[in-house]
Amino acid sequence: MSSMARPTLDLVTHDDARPAFPAVHLEDRSVLSYGELAGLVGEFERVLRYDGKALVLCAGDRDLPTLLAYLAALRLGHAVAFMPASNEILSAYQPEFVVPAPGSAAGLADLGYRPGAELAGGTPVFLRKSGQPAGEIYPDTALLLATSGSTGSPKAVRLSCSGLADNSAAIISALGITAAERAPTTLPITHAYGLSVLNSHLLAGAGVVLGDRPPLSLAAWDHLIRCGATSFAAVPTTYAAFGPAHAGLLAGSQIRTMTQSGARLGDELTMRLARMMDERGGRFFVMYGQTEATSRIARLDPADLPRRLGSVGTAVPGGSITIRPAPVHARAVPGEGAVHYRGPGVMLGYATSRADLSRGPEVDILDTGDLGYLREGYLYLTGRAKRIVKMLGVRTSLDDLERLVERPGHPAAVICGTDDVVHLVGEGDTDVHEQQRRELVETLGVPSRHVLFRHVARLPRTPGGKVDYQALATVMDTHGRPG
Question: Which of 95, 56, 478, 411 is nearest to 269 (CA)?
């Protein structure tokens, strides 16, 4: 397979990337211009040169070596896997190159890799010792990202180079990103939402504020204020903890755009954030996306609030959302069905091993697994299809029940147990949760014993901020007691 046959993506030296313009603001207060960034990426390209299309596993996150390796690999037409450098992952995918997280190179020699050149702060690039080809990679493959429920497992989403470029361009258009923007990496770039912030801003010739501190920490805000960050991206759990002190920090910043994706954001919190940004002449975007769509599928224009409160908006440019028939449940909204998406960035398919990487596109229209309905082109999500259960013979949406009893400041989840028992699991005030429990009993029309409350110190979350129902189920035994 010749290098000419491999699509490439250049996020460093394209027409909108002015060489003298600031590209990356680092935590040591230094700044890399696009010209300097291109020079460092070029050094990595020399190390990652390979006769054919290679797989480059990046085990770090929001550090300079990881960023440089990612950008170099895309320019060379290689594929990048943002996954842990574990024995299970390395055995499954046999990457030609491994870029460990800084300071985490120990043990790679025992897993079949030898250190190569040292670059960018002493981080070595490791090469696979075996000279045997690991298997061809479909030319347009650019990324392997773990799905939200498969962290640490070999299951990954295969994303294309063309999809990555098209989805990034759609986000630039949807948010009006210009070269004047500076976006902090407040989210992991190993996941679709955080990576799309990086990709879209670099593709627009804008600046990136590189750092991996918790998004609400004083150190993180000191860094983004000092660097003149103009936007802030976060998941609902972060925004729920956004208090008066953070509002004060925001007032001293240049942030004019806030975006939210991941889990559902409550209506009350949505309006509070929208008003907060509107008062400073800024914008707050509710967004919706999936790893299987490279990143974002829809966005709600701030001008549509509060009229479209509860909606995640309309499809990003080039995309279309349709509703297909799905099994109904007791409280289904008229027109509710399975949410399907066609547009920029729909995945090639899934992978669990190196052999899967040779496959081409297998998905045309993406079944998101979500339920929802359209009103005048605006999408309203109602829950996950797999969260529809039969309760005393009646099909019920657990997500709908959660939304029904939602209380700001009192996170709660609803899961199904055995013997027609629903469990309300919460981490807030027990008196408030007891009110929620009684409301569920009344809504379901069942005897009180069929809805049980359990208190937990903290609800388990996925990296995207959603409740991790699989992890939650493992801490409950068959009688509904915390394990």
Answer: 411
Q: How far is CA 141 from CA 60, 266, 357, in A?
A: 20, 36, 8
479 occurs within a structural domain: no
Q: Which domain holds residue 416?
A: 405-474
Give the CA distances from residue 44 to residues 164, 293, 383, 419, in Å, rounded to whole numbers and listed in that order.
21, 28, 44, 58
pTM value?
Answer: 0.87
Decide if 307 is inside a domain. no
Residue 32 has pLDDT above 90, yes or no: yes
CA 455/CA 426 separation, integer angstroms: 5
- Look at residue 129 and give its three-state secondary structure: coil
267 and 410 part of one domain: no
DSSP-assigned letter for residue 13 = S
pLDDT greater than 60 at residue 477: no
Among 203, 212, 85, 199, which Cα is nearest to 143's?
199
* Mean pLDDT, rounded, of the chain: 90
Same domain, 94 and 225: yes
Helix, strand or coil for residue 323?
A: strand
Of 359, 362, 363, 361, the residue nearest 136 (C-alpha): 359
For 390-414, how does the pLDDT look when each residue is reduced to its tens digit (9 = 90+)? 777 778 888 888 888 888 888 888 8
Instruction: Give the whole-angstrom CA distance, residue 80 versus residue 77.
Output: 10
Contact status, residue 433 vs residue 426, Cβ threshold 8 Å: yes
Task: Point out which residues pair with 378 in neighbouring strands.
Answer: 375
Reading the block at residue 428, the tokens are 């807030």
DSSP letter at 178 equals -
Contact 293, 193 (CB under 8 A): no
